[in-house]
Each structure stands twice: as C-alpha cells, then as structure tokens.
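Next up, a specimen:

>
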Amino acid sequence: MPDWFSVLLRSAGLFALTLFLARLIGKRQTARMTFFDLVTCMVIGVTAAVISLNLAGNPADGLIVLAVWTLFPALIYVLAMKFKAVRDIVQGKETVLINHGKVLEDKLLEARLTPEDLLSQLRRKNVFNFADVEFAVLEPGGDVSVLLKKDRRPLTARAAGLSAGQESAPQTVMLDGIIMDEPLAAMGLNRGWLHAELEKAGVAPENVFIAQVDSAGQLYLDLFDDAVQAPKPKVKELTFATLKKCQADCELYALSTKQPEAKKMYGKSVETLSEVIRELEPLLKR
C-alpha cells in the first residue's frame, strides 16, 4: 500500500475519531474555553497529528493518549458540576479588579493584568472612564464583567417608573424570497396575511431577502435591492392612534347626546378605553 494512501486512511479515521471525542467532551469545550480546555485541545490535536503521520512508534500508544485526554477531562467536568472545590481548581475563581470605583492593584498583579489590559477590557464594555465603574470582576474564562455606578447606568423603564410589556422573539417568515410556513403558524398567521402585508408595502415576495414578524405583529423587511428602502411598519402607531380616536369620539358623543342612558354608556366606554390605552401604551409607544 502506498505511503500516501496509508496517511490518507489514518487521517480520515482519526478525523472521525477526534470529532467523536470532541462531542464526547461536550459543547462547553468550545463555548467557554479555560486554560485547561485549551491544553486539552492542544494535546488531542497534536496527538492526532502524530498518529496520522505515523510518527509514534506504536499507534496503540497514541490511541491510549487520546483516550486518556478525552475521558479524564470528561470525568473532571462531571466532578466539577458536582463539587465546587473541583470547579475552583479546574476553572479558577472570579477576581474582583475594581471595588467601589477603586482599582485593586494587588488583584491586577494576581491576575497578571497590566493597567492597559484593564482599560482595554473596560473599553470593550463601552466604559472609557474607570471612575464610572462600581465593580469589575475578572471571570474564570478571562472576560471582565462590569457594573457601572448608579448615576452612570443607562436609563431603564424600571428606573423611570414605567411598565414595559413583555415581548417574544421575532419569527423569520421569509428567507431568500421563500415563505416559511412553520414560523407563520407559530405567530398565528398564514400566507394570506403575509401576501396582504407585502401588497400594502408594495413589495413583491421574490424581492424579499429576509422578513420577520415581531410579537406585536409588525412585519420588517430587508430587500435584495439595497437601493430600495423598505417601508417601516406602522401597526403600533396606527393601533394607538385608532384607540385614541375611539376614545375622543366617545367623549364627543357623551357631551353631545342629551339622553342620560346614552351619556352613561359613552362615559363608561371612555373609561374602558382609557384603561386599555394605559395598559397598552408601554407596548405601542416603544
């Protein structure tokens, strides 16, 4: 058998074996790599390359190395999920770098970070002044988590005393001009509704690159032709305007009628619409 063919067979077999071993270790290996994860990946990759090129004296020894460096990390991960002491050894602990706006130099030295490294990590969090930071923590994965001081945090609906309605993830209903029925059905919609909305927007289905529907039933479009501006959805604005108009009409009817029962009915309708508008305003005016 030619040497190149032997290398090809070994490489193909080891490729499948390494893929299987990587899945055996788990998704966490690529999702959150620690230093231990990096060493494990390097050893498995180098061992697979050595066996593929037949540089090991005995291929069985290489397979034993692969088995050890796969089973042991998998076992350690299982133990780490059960025991915090094992997690602290394998993953490491969090390190507080800034406490109440004060940079802890000894913790920076312990984490092997320079002041430039810290400032760079803060800039990645859109923080350009360390004095704005209440707490900064170095996570075991190497990322820095930042908590701004109260007067530097972005304004939220809760801080402003406003209620915000719940919102579900938007559904992609068209890709590359192809209508996707399952997401439409998940939103309680159908192709007829989609075609009607596209007709309102003056857009042909074959010209749609991506179409998404949010939790309020608004259709957002991205067209193949970037020079054409897709119309912005106005379902929320029109709904809010319609409710306000109905409220104003009921108030007008209540003032203009001279029948007590009709005046009472319109007045009750105004109160009901006011309650509905108050509850829906956080959703409709976002």
